[in-house]
Protein: Lipid-transfer protein DIR1
Organism: Sesamum alatum
Amino acid sequence: MEASATQSRIATRALIVALVVIVSAAVSATAKANDGLCGMSQDELVECRPAVATGSATPPPPSSACCAALGHANLTCFCGFKNNKYLPLFGINSTRAMELPSKCDPNQTAHC
Ligand SMILES: *[C@@H]1O[C@H](CO)[C@@H](O)[C@H](O)[C@H]1NC(C)=O
Ligand SMILES: *[C@@H]1O[C@H](CO)[C@@H](O)[C@H](O)[C@H]1NC(C)=O
Ligand SMILES: *[C@@H]1O[C@H](CO)[C@@H](O)[C@H](O)[C@H]1NC(C)=O
């Protein structure tokens, strides 16, 4: 009886340690995403989001804030997300994402 109570305390402690590790890994992954992506901040990415979202047949054109942000973004880096299988999970249509630079400026294209 005594031994099994000790064992279950140890098991509980191991479970808590595992949860703490998982939660802190998730938190640091989120913090990394908050730094932005490819030269764009998280806020700037949010500005562009409606124009690249899945689910709407005709997405709105990118806002001027989004286009201004794209002007200093690293498009080569964004090319790395072309055909990224995780983008749809975030509600992003990668075809639209790749069209975004030319929608802002017809002279600008993402050279992928
Ligand atoms: C993604 O965007 C393209 C171009 O606008 C469109 O043809 C396609 O149907 C969209 N796919 C999804 C899953 O929304
Ligand atoms: C842009 O992104 C690419 C791919 O991630 C990287 O190799 C390159 O150094 C970046 N360029 C700048 C100016 O940050
Ligand atoms: C695109 O390039 C043409 C020719 O160089 C130029 O006349 C036009 O102003 C440019 N458009 C934009 C939006 O920069």
